[in-house]
């Protein structure tokens, strides 16, 4: 019978903790989904705008530029999701792939033989002659700031869900199970099936059972502060929308810079890579930058407003949950578990008057959970601005 009761209290405590965690986890998971959807919307609009730039202003290379553009935005997406890559590598890899196209389709549009060896030579030369000027480096700087904040927030949200899931499945020690049985079911042996534990008695038992969980309090407070910092950064100088939708303009400025310095670039490339075959005549292309479509701009504004509203709602809720782990015992003892409308209660030994309830704890060993304790440290990479 005692083993049956111990299984019951373990099941009941897990269900109680899951019920407490439900709203908190719902907010974190919901904001994670909202953030991801908004990010994907910004990313999709930014990629479409960049493709439109090539199709309208640089048509001779638009088809060939489609793959490098796709790779750039894929790399950005993977970076935010936590992949082992950097914004600098993604951007510079894009410009490495872009230079052979700009050189052969815009600067020297008469080139007919663009072999793999010659293309690779142009890619390597790009790193030495810097044909795109400071625009490529500026693009790295601007994107790094915003994408870093987004990456850290994405990881923080995932960590929050992981911590909550861990506390939900924290194992109860034998001492804790016995104390819970004594608190909840020992009165049944005397036929007192309706009597409930005294509040102070319940608090002592729960605090002992959840000692390692409550130790998360300081780290949880730090975690909330980190979330607040990251959400503020995303809404200020590190605005994700501005960074992503400005990519097309940075690329356009970089290409124009390379064209303006075409003769000097050609002279250097000829020395390093040789002179490729060219057809007679010189094909030129315009530099018409496409206008923003009203529907696209409207979609962007709505997505940005929605993300800002969700961000404010989320961080305000999370700030109210700063004491979640410090008060978890009080939350579990608040409700149907204890007697609040009766003048008597169970103190672990007998039925007593509430005013005379003895506050005692019938075991001393706190719950031990190595896996849970290993989850207590929250750490974050430094911002690119502070590195």
TrEMBL record:
It is a lipid-anchor; GPI-anchor. It is found in: Cell membrane. Signal peptide: none annotated. Cell surface proteoglycan. It comes from Chrysolophus pictus. One of its GO terms (cellular component) is extracellular region. One of its GO terms (biological process) is positive regulation of canonical Wnt signaling pathway. This is Glypican-5. The keyword Hydrolase does not apply. Pfam families: Glypican (PF01153). Keywords: Cell membrane, Glycoprotein, GPI-anchor, Heparan sulfate, Lipoprotein, Membrane, Proteoglycan, Signal. Its main location: membrane. Belongs to the glypican family. It comes from the Eukaryota.
């Amino acid at each position: 019978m005692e083993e049956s009761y111990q299984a019951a209290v373990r099941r009941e405590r897990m269900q109680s903790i899951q019920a407490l965690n439900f709203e908190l986890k719902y907010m974190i998971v919901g904001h994670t989904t909202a953030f991801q959807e908004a990010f994907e919307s910004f990313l999709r609009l930014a990629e479409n705008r960049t493709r439109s730039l090539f199709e309208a202003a640089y048509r001779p290379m638009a088809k060939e530029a489609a793959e490098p553009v796709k790779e750039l935005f894929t790399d950005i997406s993977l970076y935010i999701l936590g992949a082992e890559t950097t914004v600098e590598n993604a951007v510079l890899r894009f410009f490495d792939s872009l230079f052979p196209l700009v050189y052969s389709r815009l600067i020297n549009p008469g080139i007919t033989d663009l072999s793999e060896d010659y293309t690779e030579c142009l890619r390597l030369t790009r790193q030495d002659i810097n044909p795109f000027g400071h625009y490529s480096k500026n693009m790295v700087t601007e994107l790094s700031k915003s994408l870093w904040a987004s990456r850290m927030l994405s990881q923080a949200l995932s960590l929050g869900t992981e911590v909550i899931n861990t506390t939900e499945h924290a194992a109860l020690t034998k001492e804790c199970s016995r104390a819970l049985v004594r608190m909840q079911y020992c009165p049944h042996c005397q036929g007192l099936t309706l009597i409930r534990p005294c509040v102070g008695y319940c608090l002592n038992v729960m605090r002992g059972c959840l000692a390692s969980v409550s130790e998360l309090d300081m780290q949880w407070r730090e975690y909330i502060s980190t979330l607040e910092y990251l959400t503020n950064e995303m809404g200020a100088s590190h605005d994700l929308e501005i960074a992503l939708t400005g990519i097309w303009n940075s690329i356009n400025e970089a290409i124009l810079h390379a064209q303006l310095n075409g003769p000097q670039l050609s002279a250097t490339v000829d020395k390093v890579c040789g002179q490729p075959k060219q057809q007679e005549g010189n094909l030129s292309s315009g530099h018409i930058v496409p206008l923003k479509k009203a529907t696209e701009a409207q979609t962007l504004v709505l997505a940005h407003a929605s993300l800002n509203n969700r961000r404010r709602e989320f961080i305000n809720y999370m700030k109210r949950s700063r004491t979640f782990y410090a008060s978890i015992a009080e939350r579990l003892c608040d409700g149907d578990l204890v007697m609040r409308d009766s003048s008597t209660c169970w103190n672990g030994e007998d039925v007593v008057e509430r005013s005379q309830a003895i506050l005692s704890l019938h075991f001393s060993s706190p719950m031990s959970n190595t896996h849970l304790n290993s989850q207590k440290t929250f750490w974050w990479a430094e911002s690119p601005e502070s590195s």
